[in-house]
Amino acid sequence: MTEQGNRAAGPDADLTRWSAAELGRAIGAGEVSAEEVTRAHLDRIAAVEARVHASLHVDGEGALAAARSVDSRRAAGQAVGPLGGVPVAVKDVLVTRGIPTTCGSRILENWLPPYDATVVERLRDAGLVMLGKTNMDEFAMGSSTEYSAFGPSYNPWDLSRIPGGSGGGSAAAVAGCEAPLAIGTDTGGSIRQPGAVTGTVGAKPTYGGTSRYGLIAFSSSLDTPGPVARTVEDAALLHAVIGGPDPRDSTSIPAPVPDVVAAARQGASGDLTGVRLGLVKEFAGEGAEPGVSAAVRDAIEALTKLGAEVVEVSCPHFRYALPAYYLIAPSECSSNLARFDGVRYGLRVGDDGTRSLEEVMSLTRDRGFGPEVKRRIMLGTYALSAGYYDAYYGQAQKVRTLISRDFAAAFAAADVLVAPTTPFVAFPFGARTSDPYQMYLADLYTIPSNLYGGPAISVPCGLSEGLPVGLQVMAPTMADDRMYRVAAALESTVGLFTPPEL
Amino acid sequence: MSASTAAAARYEPVIGLEVHVELGTRTKMFCGCPTVFGAEPNTQVCPVCLGLPGSLPVANKAAIEATIRIGLALNCQIASWCRFARKNYFYPDMPKNFQISQYDEPLCTDGWLDIDVDGEVVRVGIERVHLEEDTGKTLHVGGATGRIHGATESLVDYNRAGIPLVEIVTKPVPGTGALAPVVARAYVAQLRELVRSLGVSDVRMEQGSMRCDVNTSLHRPDEPWGTRTETKNVNSLRSVERAVRAEMARQARVLAAGGTVTQETRHFHEDTGDTTSGRSKETATDYRYFPEPDLVPLAPDPQWVQTLRAGLPEPPRTRHRQLQVHWGLSDLDMQAIVNAGAVELIEATVAAGATPDAARKWWLQELSRQANEAGVELTALEVSPVSVAELQRLVDDGKLTDKLARTVLAGVVAGEGTPVEVMAARGLEVVSDEAALGAAVDAAIAANPEVAQRIRDGKVAAAGVLVGAVLRSTGGQADAKAVRELVLARLC
């Protein structure tokens, strides 16, 4: 049914198959123009988008204008940077000046933001060409894009299956060669889980290592923008562009991002001598499909052949991560999403002169939000209510501290932790929408890093039932470089995973 | 005996005050927007203070510094670590539908302010001083009342949204009895002087840069404290006093009739001096406070706090005492000036040439009376310290009598011009023309021969009748003392 293509990234007649690093190099050397590269990707989008639905908005004209600007700068002898002229798709959770930004929700349909997110600004400053905005579960709540108000995205590996979520659009765009790079955001696994199920590389940087300014908040203390790519090096290059301190985000870490590109290149040499891989005891046998477990086991074995050692670590509080997350994230979301009331922007329902302000707000929110968003707003509103705060939100924060301590202890024994990214491969549409908990389980292995704040990456490590499996590499906060090194080493030995031709 | 005094005879009042001070920082609390008062609506806004999706707050260090200085001046402890919190409720003038405030971890706690009331010092405990962001302003158009009910349209101006706001909350103040309304006013007046002395706010109540909520409860002596009400919209010194009076009287009526006071928010009405029920606390919003995840905790460096403490200006009380000595006023006179919020007015009037006593008399007597009649604050009257000094000069020069001066002053307040202009326009100058005055005196003697005879017989006190007659015939523009001298000169 599906085929595996182990193919090195590199020049090919079809520019949409090139890696971002290779595109950037070729554009910089004048071998190909940014405009040609952009046109190739716009053509690819035109050809496959009807089947993949990775995007909510394609800005062809803006992309071509940006590409031409890079070409003219290069022609004028200016350096355009390693990713200058390389196309990128941006998750619709990041605001883009004058370009529709919906967050996958009806409530923001037709809203045109008056400003750019810091991440978007940095993409532009680095000469990347923004192709458009990618699909996502509404307000980044979901693991399949089935909660997008504008219909789901389809997994290029098997169009009857989900591409993961919430950043399924970004992952599908990259896996389907509509863009070599994409930006995602990860609150509980929204970059990594789509990466795993589409055979792409998705990295969640250290919380605070990439700016949240302009990221429409779901859960402020967890949301982290990060790169999506087809190779580890590409992810690192994009990470380096978007990372670093931002005075507009108080929670951004006032220190430069570690040299993730150098780490990725070091890892690609295939030597992991002396690197200690921590296996979380409590993750063993916890809910992963046999095929996923097998692929991950093989990947770890491959890493040991590169010189890595395996140590077992214990993280006893990880079992409380999912419940803690489903108190903290909904609590913050219930407050963050309060601003969508129809008063200032976005959808307004029922303002016919007969209804009170409260009725209009209420109707707007009722029609504007989908079921998962409403579910989480209600959960969070309840958890923060007087009399329940200590038992729910307060307790969850304590769990968060304990999980961070687990990580600290684990990182005393291991350099990185390795685990499956998600317990199951891409599932068919509808398989997990009737029981929210079944959907929440998709984030079982990704959530601990969000609660702790440390970086984590999903790198393709094999196939199960012909579908991609991701290995997750977790590192200590501000040690993003470590995970890139290990991920690149794995990539160098297992190769890339390319979906069948669409 | 006023109703509040009667209430205090049967019940003990406990009061508490929550004062909001808009800081005069150049930029807003969490963004770089300017804070100029009175700009065109929605011209001082950006994605952050409009709460646009994706925007994030960054705390203004100048506002934190100002708050710490207020806390230090109020003898508070400064937290070594504290956080902002979100206060969640839906209201259209609040762009995010939550307000960034502080909850259980305020920046400053547990201080006090000594205030002078009626020759005594009352120590008002300070529970907390915290920092938050102001909301926008809603204007309801088309309704008769200006309230949301009945309005055809509501307009929101977000210029004020995000302006740093310091909330200063007192501990409950028991034991002030019938003086409770005066104590409340004196506290706000003296707090205002204190904040002004720090240079962190213009504390103009009429512009809303200082706003006040008043908590009041009554209880029988030797019984536990009663249920309190929170009266909002108390936006002048005068209103602070009136609001406490009104609540004491109302609660006493409720209790005397065997009723119970409901814990609720009440609204003070400037026009009637009454309070009416707002929303009841039972149905009040659960604010679902939680620590603001978009901001990092505040941890003021102790060294910095020490520097701020060392840089505090002289407390207003000290300065007031120096002024009092300098001006030669009694304790009570000086307290009256402070509690009327008139220190600066009198300073300026003295600087313009009036004696301190004359300045005090004009501002605290005649002008206070006029302000009361108009129902406005003293500072809101259309009269400048320079005009008051000029008026006094006219009296000292004999061009105006006290009575005429009051009339001229009314003209100045009515916007007719400077005292000299009003005097000229209304023809109010004292008749000092000797010939004209002499003729009037002669006429009065001729018209009252019996009185004249009694004076000639040595009954000098009878001269008053003739003086009165002359004053009447000159339309009050003659100086009584001069007339009396003329009468006596002719008859004795």
Structural class of chain B: alpha+beta
What is the helix/strand order of chain B?
Answer: HEHEEEEEEEEHEEHEEEHHHHHHHHHHHH
Radius of gyration of chain A: 21 Å
Name the strands of the widest sheet of chain A in spatial order: 1-3-2-4-6-5-10-11-9-7-8
Cα separation of the termini of chain A: 12 Å
Poorly predicted tracts of residues of chain B = none
Broad structural category of chain A: alpha/beta
Spans of chain A of 5+ residues with little confidence (pLDDT < 50)? 1-10
Q: What about the largest sheet of chain A?
A: 11 strands, mixed
Question: Strand tally of chain B, please?
Answer: 14
What is the mean predicted local confidence, pLDDT of chain A?
96
What name does the CATH topology of the domain at 15-273 and 455-494 in chain A carry?
Answer: Amidase signature (AS) enzymes
How many domains of chain B? The number is: 3
Radius of gyration of chain B: 28 Å
Share of helical residues of chain B: 25-40%
CATH superfamily of the domain at 15-273 and 455-494 in chain A: Amidase signature (AS) domain
Biggest sheet of chain B, in brief? Answer: 9 strands, mixed
Write down the overall geometry of chain A: globular
Topology record:
The complex is a heterodimer of chains A (502) and B (492).
Chain A: H1 20-28, H2 34-52, E1 55-58, H3 60-75, E2 87-91, H4 118-125, E3 129-134, H5 168-175, E4 181-186, H6 192-198, E5 201-204, E6 224-229, H7 232-242, H8 260-268, E7 276-280, H9 290-305, E8 309-313, H10 321-336, H11 357-368, H12 371-383, H13 390-413, E9 416-420, H14 436-440, H15 447-452, E10 456-464, E11 467-474, H16 480-494
Parallel strand pairs in A: 2-3, 2-4, 7-8, 7-9
Antiparallel strand pairs in A: 1-3, 4-6, 5-6, 5-10, 9-11, 10-11
Helix pairs in contact in A: 2-3, 7-8, 8-16, 10-12, 10-13
Chain B: H1 3-10, E1 12-22, H2 61-73, E2 77-78, E3 85-88, E4 98-101, E5 108-117, E6 120-133, E7 137-141, E8 153-157, E9 164-170, H3 180-198, E10 210-219, E11 229-234, H4 237-256, E12 264-268, E13 275-280, E14 290-291, H5 302-310, H6 316-327, H7 331-339, H8 343-351, H9 356-374, H10 385-396, H11 402-413, H12 419-426, H13 434-447, H14 449-456, H15 463-473, H16 480-491
Parallel strand pairs in B: 11-12
Antiparallel strand pairs in B: 1-9, 1-10, 2-5, 3-4, 3-14, 5-6, 6-9, 7-8, 10-11, 12-13
